[in-house]
Amino acid sequence: MLGKSRFGIVVAGVVGLFLLLPLVAVVPFSFTAKRFLSLPGGEYSLRHYWALLDTDTWLASIGTSFLIAIVSSIVATVLATTFALGIWLLRPRLAGIVTGLVLLPIVVPPVTSAVSIYFLLAQIGLLDTIPGVIIGHVVVTVPFAVVAIMATLNRMDRTLDQAARILGASPFQSIGLVILPNIRFGLFTAWFISLVMSWEESSVTLFISGVNVTTLPKRMWDNLRLDLDPAIAAISVLMTLLTALVIILRGSRQQG
Amino acid sequence: MAIISKPPLSPIGMQIMLWALPALLVLAYVLPFAGVALRSVTRPAPGLENYVRIVASPDLRMILYRTVLICGVSTILTVPLAYILAYYWVMGRAVTSRLMEICIFLPFWISVLVRAFGWMVILRNNGLASDLATFLGLPAEMLATGRSANSVVIGMVHFMVPFAVLPMASVMRKIDHRVLLAANGLGAAAPYVFWRVFLPMSAPGIYSALSVSFILSLGFFVTPMVLGGGRVTMIAEAVFVQMFQTANWGLGSALGIILMLFVLAVLWLVRSVVKLDQSVSR
Predict the structure, then answer these.
(1) What is the SS3 string spanning A67-104?
(2) pTM reported for the whole predicted model
(3) Which end of chain A is more exposed for a tag (fewer CB within 10 A), N or C?
């Protein structure tokens, strides 16, 4: 097998390093003492990390992104949950078509979705507003939440719901007391996926926000395109550390 | 039992629960999408003018051609790299597997902007790659690809590898290890077991990785714009430019529709290929 060949494992190691390379490469740039993007060259400074606390620019964007991510992920999870429960409990005749409709934004290229949502928000006057961006994020993240919840529901034992009903629970009591507690990990996964996707969403956001609403990805984008401020290296390092922390914590909990 | 397993008479509340999301998506997604399709044939004047222009204009034709070429090259590079990672993630020893998992999921969860920025500081002129080339005594251009199609391909492959790993890993997990042991017991050497047993059994994963990567790459937008710097325009970037820089909504819409038709065509093709493959192997 490949497993026994030295060559295979070396290649896998090289590919792994290739994946980590750009994440590591930005680290030295974040510690430069100069005003422009450069290697520190002996002079280290944390000034670009402090710059992230500027309440007019970076910190404001972090706050905006956080607010939008929290609200849109909760809305997406609630809508996905009610929809998945509806399909699971009622088994409507049109289930296949309706599910296809709901999953459509996964297949459609993000730019095409972005153009659609741009026209929608322009029509209802919510372009470049926080509610507008939330609508956009809900639309593109909700299918992923639906997939996560449906996967959990399909593994659940239907007889639990039936038992609850026979014992006198109303449909909604059964949902609240039996079904939802049983699929809570699926709900959490759905919420978490929507949260991360909204936090990082760039393609749709670039179309529908601009001057008034500047999410973190939007600010990073402007930065990459215009002035290449080293603060972008600092925020990249922080986001990478945060992600690494979550992955390592999750891994150790799985093993423990 | 028949009475219980039939869904109960549904209260109106349950119907509202079910239809809330589809209704929202029809209003906020499907209808606006129909609007895009409509604009592509009505702006600036009714007719197929925008589509004719895309086919007739050498510039726009070049963009379509470049999109297919760059996406094809990236996909072909992505899948073998991802296969090796998936293999050691699923089949490797505990430590190897854990290391592979970190290499796969750390980039997976990180913003495309951070990843494009990382490649930018490496590949740009006078960036880290050119420093390395100078250090090794090589011409700088050999490693520092600057704003070019090569940089875009590197950035895209880097983005797509984790996405290509997932479908292949899930197929590999389902492969019965006893089959591999049986092949080995019947006298097949390790490389033979891999090439003649494991690889064919993991083929469905390779097909879905190919299609996921290609479809994903068609919609790429941030990576080409950051790493190509406007010199390597692909279709998604062209949509953005038409919408906001030249404010040509009709043409932008038409390009968006063409992009989606492309994705649907690829999906359809993949489905027929997989079906064909299944009917042959049966």
Answers:
(1) HHHHHHHHHHHHHHHHHHHHHHHHCCCCHHHHHHHHHH
(2) 0.90
(3) C
